[in-house]
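Supplementary Text 2. Reproducibility record for the structural model of the 385-residue chain.

All settings were left at their defaults, and a single model was retained for analysis rather than an ensemble. We include the record here because the model underlies the residue-level annotations in Supplementary Table 4.
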Amino acid sequence: MKIVADANIPFVKECFSSIGEVTVIGGREMTPWIVADADILLVRSITPVGVDLLAGSKVRFVGTATIGFDHIDIDFLSCNNIGFASAPGSNATSAAEYVIAGLLDIGQRYALDLEGKSIGVIGVGNVGSRVAKKCAAMGMDVYLNDPPLQRQTGDTKYLPLEKLYDCDFITLHTPLTFEGQDKTYHLADENFFKSLKDRCVFINASRGAVVDGSALKSAVKSDRLKAVVLDVWENEPEIDIELLKMVDIGTPHIAGYSLDGKIAGLIMIYKAACEYFDMEPKYGIEDFLPEPAVPELKINPNISNDQDALLGAVQKIYRIDKDDARLRRVLEKLAEDRGKHFDSLRKNYHVRREFQNTSVILEGTKPKLAEKLIGIGFKEVKSEK
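Retained model, structure tokens:
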């Protein structure tokens, strides 16, 4: 069995070699000629999969190691009896931790106390629901918007979008859809930004085109927003350099790029492929996850402010400011090399682990802080007298 896989899926060759011969290639380098003889195609979000890529190919199964699949023509696969699997929820914890890191960073930059502040979470699926829980654990007032979930459940906790406009923070976690009553393409448009509370903090870690870049730039230029955190961009990898200069934190679509999330996604599509071809899976997540670099950390006992303690703990695991600095090096590149730089940051992304791998040691009894640390995802909190 022949398998063609995106080289940016970690351990994909080691894992899928148990069921076939694996060829790895860059996600933007996949062509009809390269995949023509493959039985299995494994991609990430940068590879559009549909008739242009697969017409006339032998591909019988497509797996995307991502939670979203707007890059996959599901109708084409179904009509051609091609099996499909994605990895819903695999990197949701990673993306939620990215948002927490961004909130804490912005809190420090602008001397904002997050506790008691309101945050509107637009899109309450795998990622958004985790963001909501973590924000609530930090003492924020959380407001939810998810029209499909509201219709499905009838739950009044899912509010109309306009009910979130008065929030101090807004964070987007929707899929990208181009039609229907829940269309999200350019959901955050000029009217959206004009409706937000003055000096709101805006975060997007969903899909770039959910935001109208021109409208966002206008909102920044008119000083309506206090701060902006962007992980996703329209027209990736050729991102809007002017917009990058305007945002407080800009990163290269890596919110969900923890090693834990990547390997979870790999194993999900691996097991789905094994099931599709009636094979016994040989590997699980535990076969590829290394020991964490920071299994335990100690909180400075002199820190009296819970938010500063949370920031310190998070920064021992993940420095969102360093991802921002890496992306800003694109400003030094020639225009024709900027897209390559963006892609290289994703392809060569450093090993980042999730909070759940790390225990925290607190000096003295600080039950409220301990509760917050557990709430944002740390493994456990030990008291040290």
